[in-house]
Amino acid sequence: MTGTSPTRFLDPQILRSIARIELKARLLVEGLYASRHRCPFYGYSVEFVDHREYAPGDEPRTIDWKMLGRTEKYYVKRFEMESNMNVVCLVDASGSMGYQPLDPERMTKFDYARYFGAALCYLARKQQDAPGMVLFDEGIREFIPARQGQRHLFTILARLEQAQAARETRLGDALKQIAERLTRRGIIVVISDCYGEPEAVLDGLRHLRARGHEVINFQLMDKDEVEFPFKALASFRDLETGRQVVTDPLRQRAVYLERFEKFRHRIAEGCAAAGIDHRFVDTGMPIEESLRNYLLYRRERAR
Predict the structure, then answer these.
(1) What is the pLDDT along the chain (303 residues), one digit of tens a residue?
(2) Around 80, how many Cα atoms within 13 Å sit in the side-chain half-sphere?
(3) Does the N terminus or the C terminus of the chain have fewer Cβ atoms within 10 A?
């Protein structure tokens, strides 16, 4: 997974692993074109909904002649319109996502997130849906509206290639800003380490959910953050604020792991309570495995 071209984020191994899996909406979405997702508006489709009384201006072909024979009144059939779907990936580009792991073979959280988001956008375009991308830190850094087409996908990949992990993050505030700009309902995929006050983070996620979106939250952590393998006396620096502290990691490990687990479980519990899909991912897991496992889980749940 090396190179400088934007298309490097379309890793063939990742794309092969999800080639035969569709990303479908659980909730109603709004769209303009025929696809596989239910829409809250009525139109022509194969799925019948109900009848309503005929009104002047209705298409004669929608009249249910059998109902006319039974009731001597004119009724028209209503069908559930199927629609294309917006799939918007929100990628955390704050400084903490740029952590360099102890293992030089493992990529940063930000690189992991970029490959992850690129694969989802590719999948959306492949199934004739509309991918979009938002890069954020303290607020919105880059907003790429959801659109269809190959050229638009390349625009997303180019912006991902140019982006760097930097600055502080206020995830809750950033998500609220994004929610105000996403006016059309669809699937919103948040890829972030979710650092910050848990209640502020959850409030931002709930804000997206309250706007009618289906929200998926991938909490992405480096394997070092999960296991805390440090042993020698070391200086730890906050990648967002620059603050440093010198400590003995062996003495602090138990306290760190306890606090980390509380933080992790609070995010998971808050998402579950709000009806948000939550997945914890650490960078020690191959991207194709973590992404495929989630998509297969969605497919089985839909059945």
Answers:
(1) 444 677 899 999 999 999 888 887 765 445 444 445 555 544 544 455 667 787 776 778 778 888 888 888 888 876 644 457 899 999 999 999 999 999 999 999 999 999 999 999 999 999 889 999 999 999 999 999 999 889 999 999 999 999 999 999 999 999 999 999 998 899 999 999 999 999 999 999 999 999 999 999 999 999 999 999 999 998 888 888 889 999 999 999 999 999 999 999 999 999 999 999 999 999 999 999 999 999 999 888 876
(2) 13
(3) C
C-alpha of 190 from chain center: 4
Residue 189 lies in domain: 6-27+85-302
How many domains does the chain contain in total? 2
Residues 230 and 170 in one domain: yes
Q: Distance between CA 2 and CA 302 in Å, rounded?
A: 36
Q: Are residues 259 and 204 in the same domain?
A: yes
As a whole number of angstroms, the distance between CA 112 and CA 169 comes to: 18
Same structural domain for residues 202 and 67? no
User: Tokens for 66?
Assistant: 């059998």
User: In CATH, what number is assigned to the domain containing residue 290?
Assistant: 3.40.50.410
Does residue 150 lie in a domain region? yes
142 plus 285 within the same structural domain: yes
Token pair of 117 as six digits: 């988001």
Helices (H) and strands (E) in the chain, counts: 9, 10
What residues contact 99, with CB distance under 8 A and at least 6 apart?
Answer: 108, 109, 222, 224, 225, 239
DSSP code at position 228: -
